[in-house]
Amino acid sequence: MPMKKAIVVVDELYDFITGGALACGHSEEAVEETVNFIRNHPAFPALFVCDHHPANHCSFAAQGGPWPPHCVAGTHGGEIHEALLPYVVPEKTFFKGCDPALEQYSGFDGRSAAGESLSEALRRLGIERVYVTGIATEYCVLNTVKDLIGAGFKVTVVESCLGWVDAEGHKTALPEIRKMGAWIMKA
């Protein structure tokens, strides 16, 4: 019986894309490549992880955190890029960083509107291998991959579908992701 596969799209949100509050390198290309990857694998369900912060989130500089305000719930910057919207399904969308007192980088910290975690959804769908795309390699992608592997999923990171805060951080994160046991593919 073939292995069941899914795609997990991490934080491909406007504030992380060119022109956003925390614009990342290779972000527009990451979205374009992710759309192509989803189109080329129509049998794989796509699950979306989204930063979804309150305006007073602890990670924001005004509260002593390291980041400018980004992905605030109810703002354009917190929305999934429009090119991906045809693939978004509410029960396969997971929001993280909703508690103002908690910093959450991993998609495993997110919950759907119904309260289901990413891990629970993947198990319910019978998924064994996960292809990960998203922004940013060295933060939310890295932490999501770590938790996926820790939970026993086989993980492939699609390098052409990644964006990054810092190019050096991206280059450093890729070998770390390999050491965790994930495969890295171009597309």
Through-space gap between termini: 24 Å
Radius of gyration: 15 Å
Outline type: globular
Task: Classify the secondary structure makeup into a structural class.
Answer: alpha/beta
The biggest beta sheet is recorded as: 6 strands, parallel
Q: How is the quaternary structure best described?
A: single chain
Regions with little confidence, pLDDT below 50 for 5+ residues: none
Overall mean pLDDT stands at 97
- Counting DSSP E segments of at least 2 residues, the number of strands comes to 6
Return the string of H and E elements.
EHEEHEHEHE
Please count the helical segments: 4
Strand content: 15-25%
What level of helicity do the residues show?
25-40%
**How do the strands line up in the largest sheet?**
3-2-1-4-5-6
Description:
- The chain is of the alpha/beta class.
- It is 26% helix and 19% strand.
- The chain contains four helices and six strands.
- The chain has a six-stranded parallel beta sheet with strand order 3-2-1-4-5-6.
- Strand 1, helix 1 and strand 2 form a beta-alpha-beta unit.
- Helix 3 (137-150) packs parallel to helix 4.
- It is globular, with a radius of gyration of 15 Å.
- The model has no long low-confidence stretch (mean pLDDT 97).
